[in-house]
Predict the 3D structure of the following.
Amino acid sequence: MVGLRLRPRSLSRCCTAGFAFFAAFAVGPPELPADAAPAAAIAPASPPAVAAASAAALTLDQALSLAERASPLVRRARAERDAVAARDVGASLVMPANPVVAAGAGPRRESDTGARGVQYFVHAEQAVEVGGQRGARREVVSRALRTAELRVDVARAETRARVRAAYVGAQLALARVDAAAEREALVAKLLEAVRARVAGGASSNVDLELARLERGSAARARVDATLAATDAQARLRLLVGMPPAQRLDLERRAVAPAPRAEVLPALLARAQARRAELAALASGVDEIDADIVRLRREAIPSPTLFVDVERDLPGQLFVGGGLAVPIPTWRRQQGELALARADRLRVLEERALVERDVALEVERAFQAEGAQREMAQLLDREVMPAAEAAVALMTEGWRAGKFDLFRLLQTSRDASEGRRLYLETLGLLWESSIALDRAVGAP
């Protein structure tokens, strides 16, 4: 049995770095003087594009389909299934034992009569199965093939979970790039506005240096976001089997997964019925049962039919046949049967342990998804609107000269931290949702 568990890391790595979103200017940038330089002239250049002719449009369904063909897990499992299927060729033989032919010849002389001649004999025999051994062998292969098919399903489920995690992680990483680029452009506008205020005597050089420092931080955040997005897309390309440097055009918006209608007991029952790992273990028990039947039938003696043709002297010819039956006195497959029964108990014990692990995995993922969903809703409905409103008020106060630039930047950073926390929580929610789908045996 191949037991595979998902330990997704791509979402957390993409999200924990945070989304630098300068919410202070989501409600509108500061007004610039007429002689201020245009934002486009001072905004940094866009990050260099990956060297590729064109971007490949890739939906989640397409990624899953490509990954199933390219996944090493699935390909190895299918190769093992084909190897098991090949065993049916040997198991289907009607005569598994080859015929045996013996012959001999030599001169013969009778001392009493003086008769001479060449004596020869021919002996042919063929063992024949009479205990249904062929059907038992084919049944073992059939059960083993069923187990191998279920292991392919295990590999497919693991691959699909990994691809979903990588796809959503790439979506969030690209969203981080967009947010970081937007923040950098807005900070550039703020820097120009501060320069104009300093030139007009409305602000000091301290404000100018603070704005320059903030622009440097925004540029660093954009570079980090670009590197994280490149890494996330590289992992996705690896999973789906795309060549290096192939740009991907993904569905850019990563929304929260849909709420679940099932309660925990229903999910536990669904996992026990649909988890491919449990089905593979149950099929393994059936395979051992079939092997025990085969061993018992192979203990039934296979009679050997034989024919003898012998000539002693010219005119003396003997033709006869017979039946030889081995007596199963000492050898009755005792050792093989003992090993098979012990292996059956081992698989049953393994199944009980896996059932317990599956139940704990479902419960843990269910609780994690509920907690992350509650936190994401709280951040989206209350924290983010409050942060944006606070920044809007602080911006108006800064324009009116009531607050200094440092306080505005600090409030903006707090709003950006709230945005980062929301997107990180959204990534953790997707991580928990994918883990729960995998735990209950979703396709």
